[in-house]
Design brief:
This protein is mainly alpha-helical. Helix 3 runs antiparallel to helix 4, helix 4 packs parallel to helix 6 and helix 5 runs antiparallel to helix 6.
């Protein structure tokens, strides 16, 4: 009985992860991505976080992909192609930064940042997930006439 209840709860959660649901909510996802980009840039410009070229690329790519999700013609193959190119660039940068953290873990020199919210290992992992997710979402956008 408990197992069936847990399975039911899991299926309810999985409904919200369906691609059709995410496509319907793409405006909210885009606005969140753009807000995240703007806030991150504002924090850097105001001097509250250190300057990091990896982070700059990742936040900019997240903002650009958020902007693409708002485009009424984001379903066009050229936009999908450009999003893929920009997204791959962001993913490569995020992977490089994230791998440096794994390299430190392997050598026994890893330590989280004192302020966990600006830890490069965690932020690059989040950026990696966000960029891949938004590129996948853009690639799944159906043509308006379908």
């Amino acid at each position: 009985m408990i197992l069936s209840r847990k399975f039911f709860q899991f299926t309810q959660i999985m409904k919200h992860i369906d691609i059709k649901y995410l496509i319907e909510k793409r405006v909210w996802i885009a606005l969140f991505a753009i807000a995240l980009c703007v806030i991150a840039w504002a924090l850097e410009i105001s001097g509250n976080v250190y300057i990091c070229p990896y982070c700059r690329v990742q936040r900019t790519v997240i903002g650009i992909l958020g902007g693409v999700l708002l485009l009424p013609f984001a379903y066009h193959w050229i936009i999908k192609y450009l999003s893929l190119v920009i997204g791959i660039f962001g993913v490569v940068v995020a992977c490089n930064q994230h791998f440096m953290g794994w390299k430190k873990i392997s050598s026994g020199k890893f330590q989280f940042n004192e302020n966990i919210f600006i830890d490069p290992f965690l932020l690059s992992g989040f950026a990696l997930i966000a960029i891949v997710g938004m590129v996948c979402l853009i690639l799944q956008l159906p043509h308006k006439n379908k």
